[in-house]
Each structure stands twice: as C-alpha cells, then as structure tokens.
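Below is a filled-in request sheet from our internal design queue. Each sheet records the structural input a requester submitted and the sequence that came back. We keep these sheets so that new team members can see what a complete request looks like end to end.

REQUESTER: design group, bay 2
PRIORITY: normal
MODE: inverse folding
CHAIN LENGTH: 95
BACKBONE (tokenized):
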C-alpha cells in the first residue's frame, strides 16, 4: 500500500472550510468513486475501491490521509495533484 498525506493550511473559519470542502468531496466521488461520510462535525471518512482514508477539518488546516491499494498505486500522484488543485480552486474562489 501507499499513503497519501496532505496538510493544506487555511486562513478562513472552520465552518466556511466545511462548506467549501464539500466541492472537493463531490469531485473525488465523481472522478474516482471515493465516497465520503462525515462521522462528526469536522471529520470525514473516505472509502472507495482500493482507497481508505479520512479528511479532518482543523482550525488552521485540512488534513487528508489515505491508503491506496495495489491497483490505485499508479494514480497516487494524479490523485494528490487533483486534491491540491481542487483545494486551491475552491479556497481561492472564496477569497
């Protein structure tokens, strides 16, 4: 397995972050079939074929960690790039 770890700094309120990150979660589900489920106010489980992980909304950042199974390994850098790109797009559009 291979890990994805993303620490994305934020300069906005955590409630605004949750609203904004919904777009990222929808994009991951549409493109990679990675489903999401909030297990509490600021933590979300990520699950898909060959992917398990979580997204945490903290006061000053978003932390994303995921484990990729063997068949998803070739997509690791693509998925990481896509997540960062979507976060940049969503958060810069709201400033």
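RETURNED SEQUENCE:
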């Amino acid at each position: 397995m291979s890990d994805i770890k993303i620490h994305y700094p934020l300069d906005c309120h955590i409630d605004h972050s949750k609203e904004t990150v919904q777009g990222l979660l929808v994009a991951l589900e549409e493109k990679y079939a990675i489903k999401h489920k909030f297990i509490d106010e600021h933590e979300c489980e990520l699950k898909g074929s060959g992917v398990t992980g979580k997204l945490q909304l903290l006061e000053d950042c978003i932390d994303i960690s995921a484990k990729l199974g063997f068949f998803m390994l070739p997509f690791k850098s693509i998925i990481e790039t896509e997540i960062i790109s979507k976060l940049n797009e969503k958060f810069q559009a709201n400033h």
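SHEET NOTES:
- Helices lie at 14-32, 76-93.
- The chain has two helices and five strands.
FILED BY: M.R.
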